[in-house]
Each structure stands twice: as structure tokens, then as C-alpha cells.
Design goal:
By secondary structure, the chain is of the alpha/beta class. It folds into two domains: 86 residues, Rossmann fold, CATH 3.40.50; 135 residues, NAD(P)-binding Rossmann-like Domain (Rossmann fold, 3-Layer(aba) Sandwich), CATH 3.40.50.720. The protein contains ten helices and eleven strands. The strands form three sheets. The protein has a six-stranded parallel beta sheet with strand order 1-11-8-7-5-6. β2, α2 and β3 form a beta-alpha-beta unit. α1 runs parallel beside α10, α2 packs across α10 and α6 crosses α10.
Length: 298
């Protein structure tokens, strides 16, 4: 009986570092020409700790590659009208190449109205209907950063998708639906047969056990157990959750949507949490900002 090959850990930090090095080199060439570097802005509403941490990480990463970074901070009671005026200002500011509005927003603000107001050419999150529509049609688009990052991980590790059965857990507009579309498209890292599962899917374990590549973005800590994964599968874990742990220095530990220790024993490739998909999201946001600066999409 053949012994199982050692599981390969998909190192998102390593791949993100490589991508950021390429971006840094290109930004340096822009600055050397006497031009201003690409400018990434973020709009942060309220005091949500997770949002603040995420925006700070984006700002730090932008500075690391030589980009200009600015954050527009507003109180949670900002009106929808006032926030839309901020977006109009950023849309018209020629010095800002791309910007994001950090989600979630307070409940009194309509997120879809805010996203629709963003100029698609500056939509480095890839959330506007124009960018989503172009992505669906296989046209040039600013892609949502997390799905974009997943495709880059598959490319780096030379994980073929053509003819494979990909199962995606989760149907969010940010991860599940776009990655299911990207991997089913006629492209080098596409041409997969994709099944999209969600909270109403019946016999989910039967479906996940048939997956050559399993992408988990269901938003539930350690939801995917070893008996849901077939031997030799590729497992991409998008989730990130804090679980209380008195033995940990910070009083908690970070876990994904996958029961990592158990599933890693069966998988051929697996992303850790943290250090898997997360670093790629920020790297691809920077790549989108560079594309916006170069006006290569619109």
C-alpha cells in the first residue's frame, strides 16, 4: 500500500512577499521617473476593532511597497449623505488612484448604495457592479482581492484546476461567488467543474468528499472536519475566527473554517490560518492599486 505524500503547506506570507517585492520594484521605477507613486486611500467609519486593524495593515503594506497611503476616518454617526459626498470627493481627486470603503458600515447606511457610488476605475476592492459584471463576462476587471489572491496561490504552487472538481463553501459576493466564477472560466487557472454549497445545501459532506479542490468560506470556525475531505484534496481555508484560549498569550487563538490539524493529515495541500489566504488579500489590493494607477483596466 502506497504511503501518503507529506502535506504541502500553502504559504500565503511567502507568496504575498514575492508579489509585494514585484510591486515595490515597479513603484520605485515610477518614482525614479519623477512621478508620484500610486496612492491608495481607505475610508473607515466607526470604531470597529477588526476594521481598524485591517485598515492599519493595508496602510503599513502600502508604505512597505512605496505607495502613498491615506485613511479618512469618520464617526459611526456619519450620515449616508455625508459618506456619499466623501466618495464623490475621492472619485474626483486625481491624486487618489484607488480607494476602499471598509465594511461593514453602520446599519443606517446602505452598503450597496455606497459601493455603487465608487468609480469602478478606482474600485480596488473589486466590489462595484461594473467590475463584478466584467469579471463574470471574462473581461478585464479589478478583481475582488481575496478570490484574486486564491488564484495566485494556485498558480504559485502549480495546482492545476482544469478538469478538476472544485467545491466552494459559501456564496458571499466577496469570496464564494466570485471564486466559483473565476475557476469555471475558460482560462489557464480555470476550466474547473465548480459546485457552490451554502447553508441550504443538502448532503454537503457527500459533495465536499468529491472535491479535488475545496475552498472554505462559510464563516463558521472549524466547520470542515476530516471526514468531509477526500484523501489528497487541496484545501483552501478563507475563514478567520478568534477562539478563546486561556493557554494562549493573548487569551485567544486564530482558527479558520477548517479543523486544520485533522484535515491536514488527509490533504495534499492546505492553507494555514493565519498565514494562508489573509496575506494574499492585502497583496492583491496593492496590485489592484497599481493597475488603477496604470489605468490598465478601464
Amino acid at each position: 500500500m502506497a504511503t501518503k505524500k507529506e502535506t504541502v503547506l500553502i504559504d500565503g506570507r511567502l507568496v504575498a512577499k514575492k508579489i509585494k517585492a514585484e510591486i515595490k520594484k515597479e513603484v520605485a521605477e515610477i518614482v525614479d521617473r519623477g512621478e508620484n507613486g500610486p496612492h491608495l486611500a481607505a475610508v473607515l467609519v466607526g470604531e470597529d476593532p477588526a476594521s481598524q486593524t485591517y485598515v492599519a495593515s493595508k496602510e503599513k503594506a502600502a508604505h512597505e511597497v512605496g505607495m502613498i497611503s491615506s485613511t479618512y476616518r469618520y464617526p459611526a454617526d456619519i450620515t449616508e449623505k455625508e459618506l456619499l459626498e466623501v466618495i464623490d470627493y475621492l472619485n474626483s481627486d486625481d491624486e487618489v488612484d484607488g480607494f476602499i470603503v471598509q465594511l461593514p458600515l453602520p446599519k443606517h447606511i446602505d452598503e450597496s448604495k455606497v459601493i455603487n457610488r465608487i468609480n469602478p476605475a478606482k474600485d480596488v476592492d473589486g466590489f462595484t457592479p461594473v467590475n463584478v459584471g466584467n469579471m463574470v463576462l471574462g473581461k478585464p476587471a479589478l478583481l475582488s482581492a481575496t478570490p484574486y489572491g486564491i488564484t495566485e496561490l494556485l498558480k504559485h504552487y502549480k495546482i492545476k484546476t482544469e478538469g478538476k472538481h472544485v467545491v466552494v463553501l459559501g456564496r458571499s459576493n466577496i469570496v464564494g461567488r466570485p471564486i466559483s466564477i473565476l475557476l469555471s472560466q475558460k482560462a489557464e487557472f480555470g476550466n474547473a467543474t465548480v459546485t457552490l454549497c451554502h447553508s441550504k445545501t443538502k448532503n454537503m459532506s457527500d459533495i465536499t468528499r468529491s472535491a479535488d479542490i475545496l475552498i472554505c468560506a462559510i464563516g463558521q470556525p472549524q466547520f470542515v472536519k476530516a471526514d468531509m475531505v477526500k484523501e489528497g484534496a487541496v484545501v483552501i481555508d478563507v475563514g478567520i475566527h478568534r477562539l478563546g484560549d486561556d493557554s494562549a498569550k493573548k487569551g485567544y487563538r486564530l482558527v479558520g473554517d477548517v479543523d486544520f490539524n485533522a484535515v491536514a493529515k488527509k490533504a495534499a495541500y492546505i492553507t494555514p490560518v493565519p498565514g494562508g489566504v489573509g496575506p494574499m488579500t492585502i497583496a492583491m489590493l496593492l496590485k489592484n492599486t497599481l493597475l488603477s494607477y496604470k489605468k490598465e483596466i478601464h
